[in-house]
Design brief:
Blueprint: E1 2-10, E2 24-29, E3 41-44, E4 54-58, H1 61-68, E5 78-82
Antiparallel strand pairs: 1-2, 1-4, 2-3, 4-5
Length: 89
């Protein structure tokens, strides 16, 4: 799992059939200090997060296949939760 900040949403006019009807968001993975941790990613979003939301991501492709109901979905990243608050480490 990876914490991230939602930068916005995106859409694709040409896409894999498993993405039809799915919401896609652009997220910036973050470290424990909220600093960027790698490049921005595109993730599936079934929770309806908004720009600026702190979320938890998973790279579990089995979860993405479950969301899309396609065994051949190329999706890797999915939003699995909204972070309400973090305790200092």
């Amino acid at each position: 799992m990876q914490p991230a900040t939602v930068l916005g949403s995106t859409r694709a006019t040409v896409k894999h059939q498993s993405f039809i009807g799915q919401r896609l968001v652009i997220v910036q993975p973050t470290g424990v200090d909220d600093a960027p941790d790698g490049p921005p990613l595109i993730a599936l979003d079934i929770l309806g997060c908004r720009k600026g939301d702190q979320v938890m991501l998973t790279s579990e492709s089995a979860y993405a296949r479950e969301i899309t109901k396609h065994d051949d979905s190329p999706a890797r990243w999915s939003v699995i939760g909204l972070i309400d608050e973090r305790e200092p480490s």
